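Input (structure):
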């Protein structure tokens, strides 16, 4: 499949490299235009890599994160746009403190939606990707990312909505990306158990409460992209202040991942075209622009 446009909407720089990165690298490599929209600048991200926690980095964090993002986009072969909102940070404590004034999650939905609609009408994606209603991770910016993406998917094609934000464009489908799957973790664990080797992700495995269930039951679409797992990991490592290269993200060898679970998972949230589930391609049912109904 080539000649399509795919837009992934993410809350912070580095989210694009940990959620659906190999899928984007594959579609870009096969001749499609892929655009990552990053809603915030990630201003409140802590330095999570001990090797980067050195003088001179924290002082120019905004600039550093822009450089990291540009390198990750280059590795994935995608375009990238900043939407310019300010990271809300992850509130911690009991009770939770209020979000900092001016942060993304507090911006009125109309305002953030209009900003995203503008980019949708410029780029004219056939397919959008975002997070599910829980944000995939309980960060206020991730939940807001879901809300803004769904609102933009609805509004972009309607001429009476945001008339100053460009010519209407109707997006055909929108997906949620699902990364943390119980089934995937279990298969990896079985592999280590069979070899009698300690499972490097035991900590994640133990933290999983059965009542959380498995998001696998919501997955409609699996994209073969094992060939691009190394791009995904390189892009993630490009976010050097945020990602510890010795962290658990890289604990399972690539060849084992490629053999046991060579796909990334999505849930078709809304569609305006006919398709049948399960799918193995995000563009199933969509005609490229040059195949009009003439
Ligand atoms: Zn994030």
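Output (sequence):
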């Amino acid at each position: 499949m080539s000649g399509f446009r795919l837009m992934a909407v993410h809350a912070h720089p580095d989210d694009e490299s940990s959620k659906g990165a190999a899928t984007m690298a594959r579609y870009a490599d096969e001749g499609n235009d892929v655009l990552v929209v990053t809603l915030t600048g990630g201003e409140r991200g802590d330095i999570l890599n001990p090797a980067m926690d050195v003088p001179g980095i924290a002082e120019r964090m905004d600039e550093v994160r822009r450089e990291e993002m540009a390198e990750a986009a280059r590795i994935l072969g995608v375009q990238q746009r900043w939407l310019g909102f300010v990271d809300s940070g992850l509130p911690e404590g009991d009770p939770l403190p209020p979000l900092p004034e001016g942060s993304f999650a507090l911006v009125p939905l109309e305002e953030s939606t209009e900003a995203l609609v503008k980019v949708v009408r410029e780029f004219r994606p056939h397919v959008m990707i975002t997070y599910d209603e829980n944000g995939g991770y309980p960060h206020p910016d991730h939940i807001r990312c879901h809300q803004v993406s769904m609102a933009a998917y609805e509004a972009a094609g309607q001429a009476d909505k945001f008339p100053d934000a460009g010519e209407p464009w109707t997006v055909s489908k929108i997906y949620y990306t699902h990364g943390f799957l119980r089934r995937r973790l279990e298969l990896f664990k079985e592999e280590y158990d069979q070899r009698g080797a300690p499972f490097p992700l035991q900590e994640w495995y133990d933290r999983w409460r059965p009542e959380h269930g498995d998001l696998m039951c919501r997955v409609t679409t699996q994209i073969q992209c094992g060939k691009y797992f190394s791009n995904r990991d390189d892009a993630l490592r490009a976010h050097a202040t945020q990602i510890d290269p010795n962290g658990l993200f890289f604990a399972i060898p690539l060849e084992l991942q490629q053999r046991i679970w060579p796909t990334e998972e999505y849930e078709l949230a809304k569609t305006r075209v006919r398709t049948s589930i399960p799918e193995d391609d995000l563009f199933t049912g969509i005609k490229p622009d040059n195949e009009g109904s003439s």
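Notes: The longest helix spans residues 61-76. The domain at 5-181+219-271 is CATH 3.40.50.10320 (Rossmann fold).
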